[in-house]
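Batch job 17 of 40 flagged for manual review because the log was empty.
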Amino acid sequence: MRISVFGLGYVGCVSAACLARDGHTVIGVDINPLKVEVVERGSSPVVEPGLDELVAQGVSDGRLGVARAGIDAVHASDVTMITVGTPSNRNSSIHLGHLENTCREIGAALRTKDDHHHVIVRSTVLPGTTRSVVVPLLEESSGKQAGRDFSVYMNPEFMREGTAIDDYYRPSFIVFGGDGRSDVPDRIYDAVEAQIIRTTLETA
């Protein structure tokens, strides 16, 4: 598949490199131009054993690239993964500013895209956030309707620093919330030997 990954931090870079290794065409996007430049040169912007080699392989094979504009990444892909950071506020609540801005950027790109698009949230958020925050922002920015013009899923990550690549390929299971009839999770994770648990957005 053609997959754009918004956010080239820890989760995004590991996911992008592994997806490229599995044969997908991956486009990375980040608001930090230094991260984009590092990946473009074939290196990892985060420290993780084996990740530099995976990124270098993906870039060399032509399966891992970058885009400096979100609209270009969305228009060149079938699936978009949101992997931006959701840090804690001083009162321990989750800061959703990066997620909200990313949803607006993706939605604006969808406004001028004719094909059906799939948006997957991998950022860590509280139950209910995808339906109450992500979907409305995408609909408002795109002028389109979720479930009809584009699909939204929740696919939480369970990777540990230091063993992230191994965790990606050997999870206990994969949780995928959204349209239970979609073949998107099977196509994305066809190289991962793990049960895919399909459920609702909130449960995922």
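Reviewer: the log was empty due to a logging misconfiguration, but the result itself is present. The chain has a mean pLDDT of 96. Unflagging and moving on to job 18.
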